[in-house]
Every structure is written in structure tokens, then in C-alpha cells.
Design goal:
8-stranded antiparallel beta barrel, single chain, alpha+beta
């Protein structure tokens, strides 16, 4: 009888140290995680290593693409476990869920602006009537110039000779390749890219060469233009223009220097832009 009792205790102990594999993720004797069918789940994400190998995910990482959603969540239909931004709209999949947008649709509300663009522009990616400002393509005019800074006294010297600042800083330019998050400006056959965040833009430096051959002045100036500002609507803007006068060629460059125009120098002005 005693021998039977010892055998019963030994058998019970062996049985209690193993699982029938029906209670979800468990640990085996080596401490590694397994799934319901008892298969190894190294990263403990609810997918067995063999399932991860079939999906192409990393069996040693519970979030292969690093987007904040586990491989299991994505494999169950949330998104693609191999792409952090499945719809390529600038938001990773967990950011999409936080914004209540569709991680598999770049433009959740169908208004033509990607979800990422809308969040950058502070518009609602779930409301088709809430759309970022898009600069209209066409020829724009910079007018009502107000000089903010003239380090080299160029404005007053040009005024003495009857010349306007726009003899050096072009008054008009073209907007091309416009989208909700960028546009390009075109001046004197040069192009500059202008990223837009919310309604603010900041263009690449655009280099042009301008010649003045009037009123006793004959010079060629190399000008680097920076244009930044805000879009008030698709057809109007407030802009700040900085022109760096980089070099001067011509017999009268010395005359400009005599009148206090020291090159290189910066001229900075504000202006309104209208289509």
C-alpha cells in the first residue's frame, strides 16, 4: 500500500509539471514561450516561430517593423508586419491608429491630401472638407516691398541712380509642381523646392545672375535668393526675401563701393505675393 502511494505521488508530480498546450502562451521547461499548439514562440508575440518564418517576420522580435504594433496584431489584419508605414503616407501604423486613420489608405478621407500631410498642416485627415492650403500654379507677383535690412546701402544707392530694388530682386516668379506639402518656384530659369509645413514654406536658395546697365551703372551681380513665408490662401502669401549679393563684375563696381555698397552683403525685405 505504501509503495502504491509513493507511485501515485510521483505520477501526479510528473503530470503537474507539463501542460496540455491548450491555455495560450506558456513556457516550456527551458523557459521559452510557446503557443497553443505547443510550438516554439521565441519572441512571445503569439505567433509561433514557424508562422513567423512563413510570414517573413523576425521570430526574435515581437514587432519586426518597429511601428509599435506587434507582429500578431498586424498579421490579424491591422496592417503589414513587414512595413512600418504600410500606405507610405508619412505616419507609422501606430500613429495612424492614434489618429483614427486607416493604416492601409494614404488618404483616409479621400480629399487628395495624404494623412501625414494633413497632420503636418494641422487639418483633419478624417474630414474631406478640412484640406491644407495648396499654392496655385501660375505666375505670382511680389509687391508692396518693405525693406527690413540693407547691410550694404544698396537700396539708397540704387535710388540715387533712379533704379528700384526689383532691378536686382525679380518682382515676379512662377509656382510649378505644387502639392499640399511642397511647391517649386521658378525665377530666371532656376528652380527652388519649397516644403510646406502647416501654412509655412521655406524655399531652397535660388541663385540668379542679374545685370544693370542703366543710369551710369553697368554691373553684373550674382544673387542668392532665399524665400520664406506663409500661404494665406492658394492665391496669396506673405513672404520674406533675403538676397545675398555674392559678387560684382563691371567697371562701375568700384563706383558702387565708393557710395558704400560693400559686396558681398544681404538685403532683406518683406513682400506680399498674389497670383
Amino acid at each position: 500500500m505504501r509503495r502504491f502511494a509513493l507511485f501515485f505521488l510521483f505520477f501526479s508530480g510528473c503530470a503537474s509539471s507539463h501542460s496540455d498546450g491548450k491555455d495560450g502562451d506558456i513556457s516550456n521547461d527551458s523557459g521559452e514561450s510557446t503557443v497553443e499548439n505547443g510550438e516554439l514562440d521565441t519572441d512571445g508575440d503569439g505567433l509561433s516561430d514557424s508562422q513567423e518564418n512563413e510570414l517573413g517576420t523576425d521570430p526574435e522580435s515581437s514587432d519586426t517593423d518597429g511601428d509599435g504594433l506587434s507582429d500578431l496584431e498586424e498579421a490579424n489584419g491591422e496592417s503589414d508586419p513587414l512595413q512600418s508605414d504600410a500606405d507610405s503616407d508619412g505616419l507609422n501604423d501606430s500613429e495612424e491608429l492614434a489618429a483614427n486613420t486607416d493604416p492601409n489608405n494614404a488618404d483616409s478621407d479621400g480629399d487628395g491630401a495624404d494623412d501625414g500631410m494633413e497632420l503636418n498642416a494641422d487639418t483633419d485627415p478624417n474630414d474631406p472638407d478640412s484640406v491644407p492650403i495648396k499654392a496655385e500654379e501660375g505666375d505670382w507677383l511680389l509687391s508692396n516691398a518693405n525693406i527690413l535690412q540693407d547691410d550694404c546701402n544698396l537700396v539708397s544707392v540704387l535710388g540715387t541712380f533712379g533704379e528700384d530694388i526689383f532691378a536686382i530682386l525679380p518682382e515676379d516668379y512662377s509656382v510649378v509642381n505644387s502639392s499640399y506639402d511642397k511647391f517649386e518656384i521658378e525665377i530666371s530659369s532656376g528652380n527652388a523646392n519649397c516644403p510646406v509645413v502647416q501654412d509655412a514654406f521655406d524655399c531652397d536658395t535660388l541663385s540668379i545672375v542679374e545685370s544693370i546697365n542703366e543710369s551710369g551703372i553697368s554691373v553684373t551681380l550674382e544673387v542668392d535668393i532665399d524665400l520664406e513665408g506663409t500661404l494665406n490662401s492658394s492665391t496669396s502669401m506673405a513672404a520674406t526675401v533675403t538676397a545675398t549679393l555674392a559678387s560684382c563684375q563691371g567697371d562701375t563696381c568700384g563706383l558702387l563701393s565708393f557710395f558704400g555698397v560693400n559686396i558681398p552683403c544681404d538685403v532683406r525685405m518683406s513682400a506680399d505675393g498674389n497670383l
